[in-house]
Design goal:
It contains four helices and 14 strands. It is an alpha+beta fold and 254 residues long. Strands 3, 6, 7, 8, 9, 10, 11, 12, 13 and 14 form a ten-stranded antiparallel beta sheet that branches.
């Protein structure tokens, strides 16, 4: 009986030791957990406190074209970021006085088309007395030799006298030897004068076209009466007599 009690006491002593050891381990673990919870709790509170609280009543800002762009480094509005208008202005080259001058120089000058003048025979008859220039020609009416500054065309009395080329009637005068004379001014300082004209159909200052009627051939003229009815035509450039046949492109006397 004593032996049984000794064994039983030994067993209880062993179990009690492990029970106490287990309880101590649990207490130590619980204490460690409490200390760890206390140490981490302020960090979580600070994290929650740093986050902004957005309530349902608040609305997000309207991001339009006028909204400033925040800089990634400072968080402040970046006023240097170009807008669409700035990009369009930057894309267009600035025009300076030099570039404008180069543009004007590069632009081709307008080409003016100048048509050649058209010359028409004042009358259709053949040449009786040609233009002599500096040479002397025999003048049958006065029976002497003299310079002939015009050209005499054969014509019937009453035949239409036509303007040599486009121009403006400069004057209409009565000459004692050559009868009625009509002078027309043309381009390039050219003038043409028609003597021995009657039934004048134009007036001073009137514009006439090449081939337009300016009058008719008279019966006679005192300066060249021996030649019968004809038309005396004189042409000059800047006052210097020229041969009307050269203007008409006729190289020989008909």
């Amino acid at each position: 009986m004593k032996q049984y009690n000794s064994k039983h006491t030994a067993v209880l002593s062993t179990r009690g030791f492990y029970t106490i050891l287990t309880v101590c381990a649990l207490i130590i673990a619980a204490s460690a957990w409490v200390l760890w919870s206390d140490a981490t709790a302020p960090a979580e509170d600070e994290t929650q406190a740093s986050l902004p609280i957005v309530t349902p009543a608040e609305t997000l800002p309207d991001l339009t074209e006028d909204t400033p762009v925040l800089s990634e480094d400072t968080g402040e509005a970046d006023e240097t970021k170009p807008t669409d208008e700035d990009k369009d202005e930057a894309a267009q080259p600035e025009e300076t006085e030099d570039t404008a001058a180069e543009t004007e120089e590069a632009a081709p000058a307008p080409v003016e088309t100048v048509s050649a003048p058209v010359y028409v025979r004042p009358v259709s008859g053949a040449v009786i007395t040609p233009f002599s220039g500096d040479e002397l020609l025999f003048q049958p009416t006065f029976g002497d030799w003299r310079v002939h500054t015009g050209t005499d065309f054969a014509a019937e009395a009453g035949e239409t006298v036509m303007a040599l080329t486009d121009g403006t009637v400069q004057k209409v005068v009565e000459d004692g030897l050559y009868g009625t004379c009509v002078t027309v001014s043309h381009d390039a300082d050219l003038t043409s004068t028609y003597c021995g004209v009657t039934d004048v159909r134009v007036a001073e200052g009137q514009a006439v076209a090449a081939g337009e009627a300016i009058g008719t051939v008279a019966e006679t003229m005192d300066a060249e009466a021996a030649l019968g009815p004809h038309l005396h035509v004189e042409t000059a450039r800047a006052g210097t007599p020229v041969d009307v046949l050269e203007l008409l492109g006729e190289s020989e006397v008909e």
